[in-house]
Amino acid sequence: MNVKAVVKALEAYTSCDVADALSKLKVPHGGFLAGLTMWSPKRQDGPTKVVGPAYTVRYVRKNYENEPQPSGHYIDSIPSGSVVFISAPARSINACYGGLMSTRAKYSGAVGTIVDGRLRDLQEHRDLDYPVFARDVGTTAPAETMRVAAINEPVRLNSDDQDAVINPGDILVGDLNGVVCIPQHLAEKVVELIPSQLEADEKVAADIKNGRLVAESMKEHRSGVKKR
After folding, report:
1. Which of 179, 216, 219, 221 shows the greatest Cβ crowding within 10 Å of its Cβ?
2. Residue 172 in marked binding region
3. Coiled-coil stretches, from where to where (predicted)?
4. Does the annotation place 38 within a ligand binding site?
């Protein structure tokens, strides 16, 4: 897979477009990662979009002594062009991501950060004009309750309702609609599928504006959309 070419192509599309393609490929929930929404540079507003391969970070509770303890700081190893995906322990009260981390991430060339947990220092992220998605905000740093145990390893979404795994290198797409994860092996296929579905939807929209019934228009235009 040519990652740069895939990312460049996906930048033209919304997370909804990507989810529609993934649904055709039988990916559960169209790759949507429920509960992760945009907090910076604005709260669920504007054209901000992040697209890039996942650089994953997994936190564990501080008392999990049998978990690994990586050397160095994860924030100093972020590859340029990546989307940082941080997994906090489920139901964590403390935040696991703050303004200094975004300062370094932006300097390193990351295109955004997605926090499966809480962020803090919200205004600092916004002042940096750096995209951050998260479950919620908080005030307190992570050191009291959690620590990093793994970098660039698969992480599981914190959800009782959804079984989703984010692998290093999976393509993450985030905008004001939410966050979608594209498995690496399907990324090129997603890029291939989206144009025909968008063309069909544009024709349906034009028909609706001219008074045509939705069901009738969809039957005509969507029947030719590539399925796989």
Report:
1. 179
2. no
3. none
4. no
Contact assessment for residue 56 and residue 154, using Cβ atoms and an 8 Å cutoff: yes
The answer to the question of whether 36 is labelled as a binding residue is: no
Per the annotation, does 10 bind a ligand?
A: no
CA of residue 200 relative to chain centroid, distance:
26
Which residue, 22, 6, 31, is CA-closest to 197? Answer: 22
Question: What backbone phi and psi angles, to 5 degrees, belong to 71?
Answer: -85, 155
Q: 56 with 87: CB under 8 angstroms?
A: yes
Is 112 within any annotated ligand binding site?
Answer: no
Residues of the chain with CATH 3.50.30.40: 3-184
pTM (global) more than 0.70: yes
List the end-to-end C-alpha distance of the chain, in Å, as a whole number: 18
CATH code that applies to domain 3-184: 3.50.30.40
